[in-house]
Structures are given as structure tokens and as C-alpha cells.
Amino acid sequence: MEEINSVIEGCIRGDRKSQKLLYDTYSRKLFAICLRYASDYHIAEDFLQDGFIKIFKNISGYKGSGSFEGWKKRIVINVCIEHYRKNRPLISLGDNIIPDTFDNDADILSSLHQKEVIQMLQSISPGYRTVFNLYVVEGYSHQEIAEKLGISEGTSKSQLARARYLLQKKIKASEGIADKIEVQSNDNLQISIS
Description:
Arc Repressor Mutant, subunit A; Rna Polymerase Sigma Factor, Chain: A; 2 domains; 194 residues; mainly alpha
């Protein structure tokens, strides 16, 4: 903890060695977050770069209350969200487009590799992907997502339902085993196998 505080202080002073150490320490974890929101590897790299620019620019605002890990993670997620708010507005598809009749028996992550999950997420539209990540991975409520993205709660729910449906189809196509997919709050992404 003391070491990270000295690195943070170095970054506040603009010390390049401290900035490099901070980047080297956290870039892999933050890049994994960027990959979940980006449509491809190169866009994820752009998100990471923009995220670190904001981290370095605002690091003096980190006061030590709360975890530094959570603080920088929020910055990177917000960079990803800002990109889609500016470049790809979310479109409401209405409520209840996809019936919410999913069961949960087996953990999807045990049957799929992380790379496959990332590729499936990257293949769905930015709006679906963003809502899916915020709800499933980051644990935001539909109300929080609506406020963050400037959309209605109904749009958030319909985007999540559509993302779940599309991911279900992709899992069926790639694995041929998944019948149903369940998304609960936080990171409980599960499937039922028939």
C-alpha cells in the first residue's frame, strides 16, 4: 500500500518513471475491461490509452478514500461509455422484446474460454455490449445504467434482453450445447444444457 502511494505521489508530480510503473502494473487488468467494451483489439487499445491519459490527468483527485483499483477502473469504464455515447447512440427497441424465460444450471464460463467470451461480446452491437457489461460484469442496476448512458430504464432492459438473446444464439452456434442463458446481477452468467 505504501509503494502504491509513493507511485501515486510520483504521478502527481509528473514523474515519468512513476507513470510507467503505474501503467506496467495495471495496464493488463484495465485492458481486459477495455476489450469487453470495444468491438476489436485496436479500439480497446485506444480506450486504454484514453483511460490512462485521464488517470494521469486526474490522479491528484484521488484522495485515498476507497480503493485505487476501483477508482481507476471507474475511469476506464467511463472512457468506454463516453465513446459510445458520442459515437453510437443507443436505440430503444421497446420493452419485453425477448421473453425473460431463461434457466440456470451450469456456469457458461466453465464451458467457454475467456477469449471466446470476449469475441462473442465484441461481435454484438456496441449498445447491447455496453449495457450487458454494465449490468452483468460491473453490477450496475438498470436505473444506474439509464442515468450513466442517458437512456430510459426500459431501453436498458431491452438492450440487456437482446444481448442475452444474441449471446445465447452465438453460444449455440459455437458450442452446440447451450439451450438457454441466464444473466443475473453482477458476474453470474450461466447456461442450462439440455
